[in-house]
Amino acid sequence: MRDHLEPLAGQPPAVPVQRHPPPGEGASEASAPSAGPASGEASSGVPQRLAERLAALDRAARRINSSLDLTATLRNLGRVLVPAVADALVVLVRAPLPDVERDPGPPRALQVRHTCGTRLGRRAGLRPVLPGSLLERALARRAPIGPTVLDDRRGGLAAELLGARALGRLPAGTALLALPLHGRQAALGMLLLVRRPPADGTPAGFDPADAATAAHLATHGGLAVDTALRYTREWEIADQLQRSMLPAHLPQPHGVRLAHRYLPGERGAQVGGDWYDSIPLPGNRVALITGDVMGHSLTSAAVMGQLRTSAQTLAGLDLPPHEVLYHLDEQAQRLGREHHLATCVYAVYDPIAGRVRIANAGHVPPVLIGPDGRSELLDLPPGAPIGVGGVDFSSVELPAPPGSALLLFTDGLVETRRRPLGTGLELLRARLAGGNRLTPEQLCQEALRILPPGDRADDIALLAAAFDGIPAEDVAHWHLQPRHETPGRARRLAGHALRRWGLEHLVENCELMVSELVTNAIQHATRPVTLRLVRTSLLRCEVGDDSPALPRTRRAGPEEERGRGLQIVARCADRWGATRLGTGKVVWFEQRLERGR
């Protein structure tokens, strides 16, 4: 028989549990009064044993409450009670798991969620809680039920919990003690303790001290289960919030192939604020972003959503990367005194120029893989995290020829509980050597291979870009003076370029739309107007000027000569739009290369 609480790791053993003798038996010699010094020692030792026992119960309670994960909480409960109080333990929790933020009402079914020291009930399935049953009445109580010693009938509450067939495998004389697990608002399950009969065949039993100990720890267990369910609910809400704020699909601009991965931290870790994004820009360029809000909470996820939205807005203004970070820093400070700091890398890739421009705000450096397969951690000015305030950021421009690749990531990939940041960064760089032959999806998968087995304390965001570029022969670009004859010249230049590319069937429509856009541009421009044609899987035309006023379509009256240009573009183009830039705006349209619409 176990007569002590199981000592916790690294802590002194608990004092023995003083069991009452069975009825009919005399007091033990240890409990009999005695004279002399021994009596004084026993008398003075009682408070010490009581203090040690209370300390042991406190250690057991802290162990039960040491995790926020439901499975780990039930496991700790079993380790505390087995074999200290019982030979085996079965924990049944209501199914489905309730939302403990509000009163879920009485349970309708229980399910075995954990066993310790026995296989009893592992295949029991759902156990219904029938109206008027012993189980329903037991769940409504907050006091232990039992102890019950199994006899030949093998019925009652234990049969409702596990089934008569499962109980039939227990020897006669086995003692059972059932204890309800109550949360803060409702019953959450049942705890069934099993004590097998001794070898001499006498029935097993739970004395009042055992029952009181088990009831005390079951109370802590119920509250710990309630806490784990509340945390799980908060984790799921935060995870859903964060995922809803991340892009489900990235755009696939021409000249670059993109892939992403997002891995939340394990259930025991709180949700963080990692994010990634890709934003198409004028001139077939693309902005690439990864960021990480410091801290782990619902607030971190919400701040991440605000910063990502701000980054999208700033990217639409076509600001340089360091200017984007500067304005993000201002936005973070406007969130208030309780704002969270965040790290961020912002890069802009130009597939026509074959270059990438990057700025860093306290983030881990990206890995650039050259066309020859050589990988390097980019040596960028580190900058301060977003939200510090009063810090300058700077951009670095680097060559990114076709065949090269870039991986942006958050620190959860390279920094773990057992691996420092520097070691993880070098391990990642070495792992990605030769990654120029990989697709972006394979690049992400290869990067994740450096993760050690076990729980992840932080979430991970990856954004991989394979740079293909756009050949110079597929680009035509002109600067045109804002004169009255400029629309006619623009039509002729566009027509010559399309015929050189073998796109004669697009000439008529394209010349008409180019003429309309250039006509609108020279009416507002004070500097040369830009005209660019880019041939990829479609034809894209961009007309830029230095006026920030964006054009809007409007219904022209019967007598008006103006106001029909954008209506013509809208009818002839497959897609069109306008983007405000730092130095003006760009109006663009796209057409498919195949004949017909």
UniProtKB/TrEMBL annotation:
<dbReference type="InterPro" id="IPR029016">
    <property type="entry name" value="GAF-like_dom_sf"/>
</dbReference>
<dbReference type="InterPro" id="IPR003594">
    <property type="entry name" value="HATPase_dom"/>
</dbReference>
<dbReference type="Pfam" id="PF07228">
    <property type="entry name" value="SpoIIE"/>
</dbReference>
<dbReference type="InterPro" id="IPR036457">
    <property type="entry name" value="PPM-type-like_dom_sf"/>
</dbReference>
<feature type="domain" description="PPM-type phosphatase">
    <location>
        <begin position="256"/>
        <end position="467"/>
    </location>
</feature>
<keyword id="KW-0378">Hydrolase</keyword>
<dbReference type="InterPro" id="IPR036890">
    <property type="entry name" value="HATPase_C_sf"/>
</dbReference>
<protein>
    <submittedName>
        <fullName>SpoIIE family protein phosphatase</fullName>
    </submittedName>
</protein>
<dbReference type="Pfam" id="PF13581">
    <property type="entry name" value="HATPase_c_2"/>
</dbReference>
<feature type="compositionally biased region" description="Low complexity">
    <location>
        <begin position="25"/>
        <end position="45"/>
    </location>
</feature>
<feature type="region of interest" description="Disordered">
    <location>
        <begin position="1"/>
        <end position="47"/>
    </location>
</feature>
<dbReference type="InterPro" id="IPR052016">
    <property type="entry name" value="Bact_Sigma-Reg"/>
</dbReference>
<feature type="compositionally biased region" description="Pro residues">
    <location>
        <begin position="13"/>
        <end position="24"/>
    </location>
</feature>
<dbReference type="InterPro" id="IPR001932">
    <property type="entry name" value="PPM-type_phosphatase-like_dom"/>
</dbReference>
